[in-house]
Amino acid sequence: MSTDLRLPADFLWGASTAAHQIEGGNTNSDWWALEHGDLGSSHIKEPSGDACDSYHRWREDMDLLAGLGFTDYRFSVEWARVEPAPGEFSAAAIAHYRRMVEGALERGLRPMVTLHHFTCPRWFAARGGWAADDSAELFARYVRAAAPVFQDGVAHVCTINEPNIVAVMAATRSLLEGGGAIPAVGMPLPDAAVTEALARAHRAATAAVKETAPHVRTGWSVANQVYQALPGAEDVAAALRHPHEDVFLEAARRDDWIGVQSYTRNLIGPDGPLPVPEDAERTLTGWEYYPEALGHALRHTAATVPGVPLIVTENGIATDDDARRVAYTTGALAALRSAMEDGVDVRGYFHWSALDNYEWGSYAPTFGLIAVDRRTFARTPKPSAAWLGAFARTRTLPGAD
Q: What is the pTM for the complete model shown?
């Protein structure tokens, strides 16, 4: 039996959320408009509505996380609340998110602040979104305005969450608007112009953060696809991996850290992505149950951008069986441990998600460590929450038998 792996004292151990998915009433965002314009579509089953009412109940959420043992909490600032109209900044919204930072610190939670988690103000989307020529400058303007949120007491800022998925969503919209078809398996290639715009926005936002808070360590998080090629399909997998993932990893070469987000793998055959094997266990999102994906994602990211510290900013499973959540996370942590023992520089682990929340079109996929009653908003920690929080207290990852 191997011995436990001792984690350094500054290792981040937390859970993640996103503003739109938990706050509720995000009426000025592009996603709110989408939810109320395309109801009944194959993707959007229901609107976000009140979500988890965390805009008002964030103190309770943090109390639970701290009480469960977690030392860190990743949450996002909602751009549409901070800048509801072009150039018009809400002092009240900025003060709200600043109170969240202070509230986390009071509870012994180190806050990681994400500045963009999929949602934009309606006005930004209406003028072309990321494809607009000045999108990077507008994003940096918002970041400077939001500086009071992260200037003190925040050590890590994530500029943009999963930019590769943001670029895929842009490509998907273009296909649908042009009468094209979405691939039956896999995702469309990321929109090339939006990819370039997001890289510019990341650099501009990083500069804006450093101007106002030089001590803050900046990065962005990438959705790792874990493309696994069948024999003879290695070149096909590489051709997919480059635009879907590696371009975004390479954009982080000069960052203080890069976020690794991993859930499952994608099998690639000679003709491209393959469906999930018929005999494989599936999660509530339809993804293959494959906890080992985290190790593959960490190793690939480390090989692509050597020297850049890694933080697991999301990892989890959509399931209504909490025992499977513990089993999945046990496997993922074993893969994390193995990568660290082989020299991969991992500085933290954030589980997705702290709460059962709105999963971009539906409340059905439950990723949370904490259940939320949709009617009363009562929070109920699941057994997995206490189990995972205990690792923060012991500062160890268990050894394998």
A: 0.97
